[in-house]
Amino acid sequence: HADYPDYTGKKDEVFTNTGDLTVPEGTTITWRFSTAHASAVEVFLADSALPAQRSGKDRFEAEHRFLDGGRYAIGVANEQLHSADTLAYFMQVLPDAYPQITVEQASDSTDEKYLFFIGEAADDYGFTRGGFYYQIERSTESGGTAVSDRGNEKIALEKSGNKAGFVHAWDMGQLQLQPGDRVNYYFEVWDNDAVNGPKSARSAMMQYRIPGKEELKEMRDATNASVQSGLEKVLEELRDIRKETAEMEDKLLQKKELDRKS
Questions:
Q1: From the candidate CATH numbers 2.20.25, 2.60.40, 1.10.10, 2.60.220, the one assigned to the domain spanning 100-210
Q2: Alpha helices in the chain (DSSP H)
Q3: pLDDT, tens only, 194-231
Q4: Which CATH class is domain 2-94?
């Protein structure tokens, strides 16, 4: 009888005359033996021997919770022979896998500080929670950077089987960012591993950076230079148009003069 950990959602199973099994980590196996003329039954594990307990006439039971896989054997003994009849089997134990997470980011076309995220997480058995985390790095007087603030927000996981989707919106306008600030942020989800404790997976680290004062000045200067260059080009085009207009007027006057003389 295989008693699977509740968090896996797997229904317990009964196997008959089968010793080679594949089970999740934390499964409790109960062996029920029917024997003839046996006085003892033992289950030989990798590093110990587990005596089966008598449960009735010619019946024995033994129980073990498997956290690791490997070979094991069952021995039957009577008054004349000790574990003379031994059968070998293999127990494959599947450890709980780490969750996985992917996230896509988009920004509001009218406000680049308003961000949208769409994410998906996957795990072998399910999830317990998810969160969004950020920290703000600010320049120091010594020329380095230091974390000036950090925070987190819960995310709602829409669970479907072994997967979960989520959407999240975040307004960085509320952070009161200063020139030169860097905002690092990521998502993290935890699985429901009840044997070893929940394990987590993080998305790739994302970053938003506010240009520093010098960069902002350079950007303004570049914008002003571009505007100035554009104005000069427009003025040049206007001068060309005026010149062409004047030349056309001269030609019209000359034509009228010729027409009068003829």
A1: 2.60.40
A2: 213-261
A3: 999 999 999 999 999 887 666 656 656 666 666 667 67
A4: mainly beta
